[in-house]
Design goal:
The chain has 95 residues and is an alpha+beta fold. It has helices spanning 2-19, 33-41; strands at residues 47-49, 56-64, 68-76, 81-89. It has one domain (25-95). A four-stranded antiparallel sheet has the order 1-2-3-4, with helices on one face.
Amino acid sequence: MMGRAILLLVVGGLFAACSSFTPSRSFTRTAYPDMFSALDSSPDGTEGTIKSTGETFRIKSTHVSKTRLCRLVEIKGDKTFFGESFCKAKGGEWR
């Protein structure tokens, strides 16, 4: 019983540590106009620069369903790298 409690604390601590390194951003068309413009009409492989942060982005892939359009974007900075998924319904805004 004591061993399970310790294991649970260790695993919980690892999850908490990992989640603290996840970038937390609110991407909006106003803050990232060049990236959103690329999401609207550019093909996979398109690269650009986010002027407000100096980071670069690359559209990795596009996935289409009957109800949504989703695009996976790689965003790289000097010391950061992460992927972000943007999806929208027909006629909607990227989220």
